[in-house]
Amino acid sequence: xxxxxxxxxxxxxxxxxxxxxxxxxxxxxxxxxxxxxxxxxxxxxxxxxxxxxxxxxxxxxxxxxxxxxxxxxxxxxxxxxxxxxxxxxxxxxxxxxxxxxxxxxxxxxxxxxxxxxxxxxxxxxxxxxxxxxxxxxxxxxxxxxxxxxxxxxxxxxxxxxxxxxxxxxxxxxxxxxxxxxxxxxxxxxxxxxxxxxxxxxxxxxxxxxxxxxxxxxxxxxxxxxxxxxxxxxxxxxxxxxxxxxxxxxxxxxxxxxxxxxxxxxxxxxxxxxxxxxxxxxxxxxxxxxxxxxxxxxxxxxxxxxxxxxxxxxxxxxxxxxxxxxxxxxxxxxxxxxxxxxxxxxxxxxxxxxxxxxxxxxxxxxxxxxxxxxxxxxxxxxxxxxxxxxxxx
Length: 392
What we know:
Number of helices: 0
Distance between the termini: 31 Å
Strand content: 35-45%
Largest sheet: 5 strands, mixed
């Protein structure tokens, strides 16, 4: 992903999206048998014959148990609340917050407050810790929440899909900071159907990759598509075979070895998933292939914050199980091995929430969290998480 932060997203009906067929909670798509990794048990010690006074034979020791590997100490979270002055965005959820290529400015767009959806665009100066509301010239994307966004070099802030009221979008817009204006991008080819609760991440091929989502007739999707900015064309990248079950409110990113990774979300009958999948992109006669990964992962969740930070990914909060649960935990995923470790809670921490936005601020060694939905309402707070380091 390089310098791009992916931002992730919200929904209309209190974190719930209704759908059609009910898959099992495994996160596998229909026709995708679950793969179970059997864990071998500990070896059973072999009895050792006792030595006697008349015996000249030295007893053979039984097998020794190999010590379990010791887990490294959990990184410790060091949160601090920031208090930038006015003006600043109102409390909201379902917005996106996206770091620019230079790493000095982050762009916040859209979101919602109850029944009201937003189309406002803000910048946050990471050096000055200050908000500025922009007034782009001309037409821009309609108000929305639950959209996806990414920063694309030479293009600017790119916004895809989302929802406002009963309307769902499949449009693609770009904000050019040099021109101070939005433009709608062409959508030729295999254009995705309107949706919200999808995810987006800029691939190593320079294309915008999106996957899954939900739409107005109760349908969730399991498709994956990429957008070529040079040709202005969508490409259907959905492979045959097993793939992640239809879902929304999940997150995605690119691994350090060039795989498109999808994590968690929500599907019919399962309010929060905890599965992790990696798409190996094929080429020529080699087909693309989804693979479900097993290992240490964060607990089930949807509507969580996710940010890529160098060679790792940070996950924060979200909606958990049972329905109505708000999470405040933070996890670190290795961007190569895709193994996760919890970040130990420090003395201070943001309140539990879902549908907030998390970004990396590499120049200042921190991550930033803005807004979201909590019990009992919406938030407009801003928190900084110092880059987690292993304690001890």
